[in-house]
Fold these 4 entries.
Entry 1:
Amino acid sequence: MNTAPPAPTATTAPLAGFTVAVTAARRAEELGALLRRKGAHVISAPALRIVPLSDDQRLASVSEQLARHPADIIVVTTGIGFRGWVEACETWGTADPLLEGMRTSRLLARGPKAKGAIRAAGLTEEWSPPSESSAEVLDHLLAQGVQGLRVAVQLHGEPLHDFTAALRLAGAEVVEVPVYRWTQPEDTAPLDRLIEATTTGGVDAITFTSAPAAAGLLTRAHTTGHQTDLVRALRGDVLAMCVGPVTARPLINHDIPTLWPQRARIGAQVRALAEELPARFPTLSVAGHRLRLRGHAVLVDGTVHTLSPTLMRLMRALARKPGQVLDRTHLLTCLGEDADAHAVETAVARLRTALGDAAIIQTVVKR
């Protein structure tokens, strides 16, 4: 069996040499494709499963109630949720009276996807926040006043306790519309492998497109006894890239540093990751070459040289102190407990070969 590393290849892809995980349940293929176009090696491990409530009596009952007695205001939080709501009512034969009732309601869309779903149903939204944030929707409602009004809130996978509580405190009658819910994946093996890879240095960044996905990863790690190691990795070298601040909340609650783009779009998320992740790794000028370190590779003058985990640890140790001499004892810590001085010589020789120019790493006799 051939276990040789891939042949060096020239690239300008900003994420070449990085391993990026996708935790999304929806649009995972689209997000993975965008990351691969940027050069990333992608691991897909859904952290949740969307369970439609088309057969749920709560949804049927709420829909019938709103058809008979339309709400003054309807808050649509997600496009997929609103479409799922209408489709479920179509199976019960109640979609037409529900939509007719909605024509008398003021419709607020949390973002463009929700707005698109409203218009696809033949309706028109009254307002949508520039930030696509539930908090801004709430501020808008409270500023307008909701005393004595019936406000229907389409939930998006989990209860919006703070949102609905604030409306009730302001005097509104709140009708919660539970269109779908989140649960753990039926097959948790990919998620378990992702947690292991993250805690052992095999992942450079994890992308999150929903708060339930972030919470789902942490919950699974807790269930399997690896939450402490996972949180440590996410507070350290592994970048948590979220699609927006709402998605980041479960991570922030664990004091995990998070980043997100200005616009809550997966395209913007990928662009932000492609800028941020390479900037975290050093670029060195060595022996007439330009070296750029990556998660599992080194770019030498724009050519990707993929390295094994052991050689990558050795390379990082050398790159942390460029131009300085590191003794064998120091380098032994990169090779594992069973390594000896001969193993250091062998690993350095392999690293020289992998980088393509022996002059990049020099041996200083007796030091």
Entry 2:
Amino acid sequence: MDKKTTSRDGTALAYQVTGQGPTVILVSGAMSTGGTMAPLAQRIADRCTAVVHDRRGRGASGDTAPYAVEREIEDLAALLDAVGGDAVLFGVSSGGALVLEAAASGLPVRRVAVYEVPYADFLQGGAEREAAYKEALTEALADGRRGDAVELFLRLTGLGEEMIQGARQSPMWAGMEAVAPSLAYDDAVMGDGLLPRERLAAISVPVLSVAGGASPEWMREASRAVAKTVPQGACRVLAGQTHMVEPEVLGPVLAEFVAG
């Protein structure tokens, strides 16, 4: 990240700009930094100016307590100002929930695109699972058990125990523990985990909700519900894609939407 700007509460935000054309700010999900979005930024750089950033509490960005979702919306406002005040927002997973809330709050963006926001109402027992995760995550972070917090999140995503224990032994684990406190931020962004119908209905700009054809059906249901709930919504399903969507497949769809 070679650029810095400052949010309203004084938090330093690190970001990077790639490409040329209409601007899109790419917002990562849980356990991710701006670097996670870099391959997508590179894929659309021939058609878009792609902005990636480390969300507060991650990577090269700072952090300021106490956390509130409103502070992250102010972060997006600061980025928007830094890149010229005219941009599209794109968010992945819980990052998608953040950009939808930003748009509902009136952040002056042209358009919003999201990929598989995991609203729990579409998964059987999802609301209960979300509540149990929230309680266990809060306890683990309060006790300083970052590794346990990461494990909780990986289980929430459906990763098997053998793979979780393998991840614990991998060189990536230290980095995952480093950003573990930010899991509470994404949990706050998701709220009670349910589709925020009233908030989505307040969004006044076009919204593209994208899902993977190889993801669980409930993910596609959630994505379709976003498109149906916002006043100007559309849904796309990308054949063969999962929650870990390939930039080569998503890139052209996103670039076309940004240009529109």
Entry 3:
Amino acid sequence: MTRLRSRTARSLLLLAPLFVFLVWFFVWPLVGMMSQSVSDSAVLNLLPRSAGILTNWDRRSAPSAEMQQALIADLRAVQDTQALGDMVRRLNSARSGFRTLMTRTVSAVSDPAGPPADLVSIDKRWEKPEFWIAIADALSPYTDRNLLAAIDFGRNAEGAIEKLPPDQSVNLVIMARTFWIAALVTVACAAIGFPYALIAASATGWKRDLLLGAVLLPLWTSLLVRTAAWFILLQEKGLINDLLLALHVTSAPLALIFNRTGVIIAMTHVLLPFMVLPVYSVLITIPKNLMPAAASLGAPPWRAFVRVLLPLSLRGIASGSLLVFISAIGYYITPALIGGPGDQMISSIIAFYATGTANWGMAGALGVVLLVATLLLYSVYARISSEEPGRA
């Protein structure tokens, strides 16, 4: 018993670096992303006095003098200009006009001559309850605003969930584009990968090794290098157009870059191994005498393929398709370099919110939506991959 415990302890000790790596580089970033999508303390941190008073406000009556004085005191105490900017952006996203309103108000309350008597004397908008409602709604440290906005929904003045106006609802359009591009890439990979895997499975010796090596070789090359290579090949005076013009296949260069065509070509090349390898692993388990047996029973080659080989290989095709689709929906570099403005996928929008506008809450919410979709697809992939070949 003591020896068994000692072996278990040594095994856990050997696995400890792996656990630390997974927690540090996978679990912790995911937890941070999900917490950012629901956290909202930009307003609460700067308006503690207003938070205590607004909790007892009925949200219908005119703003009281006590509420105005509390907000004046909070704004006068603000020292962090970056935090103030975060608060203004948060309020302006909830109610248009807060940017100019807060700029004028902060300048007035910071006047060395002394604070104003009330906020209405600074701007008449402070007597409107809807601006105070926006502040009251933003005081909670947690919010579903980002998650709702990620799927083009929001809350109205009464707190009910409703669809955002068309000029503010673009995330679902971009997600639909992402899934459509991923589906096209998956179909292209299946159309190329299945015949290739079939040839590799039927070959023997060095021919099979050469075919598999050609599939595995791109995996040893950086994704950025492969994408940059396609950037050179697909441009108007690239090698592909030069070859087509030299062979007189076309009379003018084809538009192969900065559009959907170039994105699909480049992504298909990058993701093709993820289709070939699962299909190949299933094809080599199919007995090679089944096709000759079908032919001996009078089935023509196409019928033997449709009725015998294709059904037995569907498990590999399904696994490869899900693997390619899961990988494609999160692509960023290839569409960013090869595609045009109308070909950017959801990962580009996440990068824009994270680095362009520093809106980590929205970036985290879109990441959560993409993560949920990926986990659902991965569960299907795991289920298909774990099925026995006889049950496929």
Entry 4:
Amino acid sequence: MSQTTAGGLLLCRAEPAAARPAAHILRERLLLAPAGEWSVLVPEGKPWVGGEGTVAEVLAGWGSAVALSSNWPVLSLWWEADRTGFVLSSGFRRSAAYEWDAAGRPHGGPDPGAMRVLAARLGLDPVLDLEELERLTRPDEAADGDSRLLGVIALLARAGLALPAGLAPGEPADRLREAARIAPGAERVEWSGWRDTVRAELAVAEDSPLGPWLRGPKARLAGTAQLAAGAPLMLWAARRRSPGWLAAGTLLVAHGAGALAYDRARRGE
């Protein structure tokens, strides 16, 4: 993999105010910027360099971690020297992924239902938009991997996505970072510790449709389930040295413990 051409973006189906608490859990240096009705997260560093997983693995893990802590989907776009692809994460639901090689051909046995899942979960037209998405999986001598991702982004404009200038597939990580820094409304996501992060996230979620799950029996059931799922995921990710999935497992443990503590504190008010 070429370290100079690898890069990736996280597209969150939420405004920055909602995406910010969820982004904190990654414990990474990130830039957050508005992207129309969405938000975009851009890594300031290159965590895929140095044997910590490929750019695809890192971005997929990050996307899953952010989606697990929210009630909106996260689309991870990634590219490297000979591959491009996306992973759609939506809470505890199965992720949908697709990859192309440098010539724009399907690569690595992609999920044949990924485009259908993408259209359904992002609210795209189930006929016209899905037909255009599926066209991106068919042979096209004029296409390459980057143009396939550009096609996905163009369709997402119909769902309110408007990426800032300079944030495009194929751009190296350094150039993405510089473009994100000057994007209107951009900010740096700062890590403030698990306690403050989980507390802020729960406070935001309490006013959302997730509110009933933050107190009472539902909160205790959900918190226990998150602890049970997060601990083995952390061990598995640590063995594989996968920072993205380690963040997801750590999030589950922290979120489960935080939910139980939050419920207990609320009952004591």
